[in-house]
Amino acid sequence: MIPTAKAPKALEQNPTGKTPNHPRYIVVTGGVCSSLGKGIAAASIGAIMKACGFKVFVQKLDPYLNVDPGTMSPFQHGEVFVTDDGAETDLDLGHYERFIDEPMSKLSTVTTGKIYTDVLNKERRGDFLGGTIQVVPHITNAIKEVIRNAAIQSGADIMMVEIGGTVGDIEGEPFLEAIRQMKSEDNVFHVHLTLLPYLKGSKELKTKPTQLSVRELRRIGLQPDMILARADYRIPKELLEKISQFCDIPREAVIPALTVNSIYDVPLNFEKYDIAKIIGEKLHLGALKPDMQKWEEGRIRYEQAEKEVPIALVGKYTGLDDAYLSVIEAIKSAAVFHGRKAEIIWIDSQKLGEKDEETWKALKACKGIVVPGGFGIRGIEGKIAAAHYARTQKVPYLGLCLGSQIMAIEFARTFLKDPKMTSEEFDEDGKLPKSKYVVHFLPGQNKGRAKGGTLRLGAYTCKLRKGTKAYQAYDEAGQLSEDGTISERHRHRYEFNNTLRKKLEDKGLLFSGEWPETNLMEIVEIQDHPFMVGSQFHPEFKSRPHRPHPLFRGFMKAVTGKR
Ligand code: GLN
Fold first, then answer.
1. From 3.40.50.300, 3.30.390.30, 3.40.30.10, 3.90.1150.10, which CATH number describes the 19-298 domain?
2. Neighbour count for residue 430 (Cβ, 10 Å)
3. Which tens digit of pLDDT belongs to each residue from 194-236?
4. Best label site of 295, 341, 371, 428, fewest CB within 10 Å?
5. For the whole model, what pTM was predicted?
6. CA of 437 relative to ligand 1 center, distance in Å
7. H-only helix segments in 186-236
8. Ligand 1: which atom is nearest the Cα of residue 374?
9. Which fold does the domain 305-443+494-512+522-560 belong to in CATH?
């Protein structure tokens, strides 16, 4: 159990003389280069603070100009993570939910595009009474306001703020300036994550890039309180001392952040260096001692997991872990739950469609098949062929949103003996009669051309049908409410065509979950199959390292043959 009483009391003491119960802010910036795992680092610090008994909330400030990440290509930006309240967010929010195990929300995601839109709308309304609108103070004030507002509305004791990008980026400057101002107005602890590159020739790690990125921070008036030094090799003591000296950071606050085996190791590794204590002292929270037992147990489970089991991930962004980040994490933690390690095998759906021999051979060597979410027609025939193979060869299959639609299309093509059956999405010139759509736009649904803001997004209730695989999976995971309902997150435009429901059911397709208010079908499954289940929603968003999602758990149970 996490002790909860301690934290608010510590906050009440509030020896800083600032507003009583003022939330504490932990700001995380990154230096040297991107892709250092800043999100995971921030999420791990959040997990440690939660393990001290605090209520933790997180906000990611992204300096790019898109208003939200919803329309960004997974190629460039990785997966779009969806919150309960339907925000389409940066994938780092997924790290936060997984590590801190608190639901994030619209408050958790802010971009430059959003800040400017809000400020410019105010300007158009005349709210600034004819004043000149400038980056400082108008944009920086708006940034401070969204941060403080998120802290107040979420009721957080500890508000984690991650600044996207790398120190030195032009777009990032207003955010850093806002943080600089907050440092004298609020209780702020600043963590800076950098990289110590390894030079093969001289066999050494280098601290100069770290020194330079801290110098860049200081140029704008920011002195970090802690450095997390990422490195692929053990960092010698002298280098940690050197960083401490050059960057003016207490030696104990220069923390080696080595590449680790599993996600369970990241918070454990940080806490080995007493970071809760260091943060607690600076933020006047008393002597903090987190309870890391859950993470220890996770690490042990991971280490004890036996040999690898190959799982096919059939998609179009092959090799791009970030595009399917939550899916991969959900597969991995479900495998560890059943005492195995998952080996993700990338299967290019387009090549499957082209009957590429090598690709089919790789698919057939897998013990389970996951068809994740996706948009657009590319690779669709390959995915349908994979679903056909899984159904006829009784290979465990999990369909996530598009993957569930694919399952139903395959079933309809086979059992209604009509190869034209498809989704309205794939009938690009709209030539087919509506009766061919297994998945379609609902009559009256907003069909506008806009790609942003036309999706069914966020959490919806689903009622499960007793006696189905889906029901059993949720029941076994202890995640079923008394009336057999669940709540899951959506991000799609198309829905199952209810006029085909009876026909498909008569042939043996089972609709095992529906959205009660609308009778929309949310889960499909195949009878007489070890596990072939697909959901319109995205279960991966609610999977946690300590609590794998019931559908992933059920799928991996079938894969590993565990009882
Ligand atoms: N393209 C499909 C739809 O819009 C599936 C979306 C998804 O997989 N997230 O309904």
1. 3.40.50.300
2. 7
3. 999 999 999 999 999 999 999 999 999 999 999 999 999 999 9
4. 428
5. 0.88
6. 14
7. 208-219
8. 8
9. Rossmann fold (3.40.50)
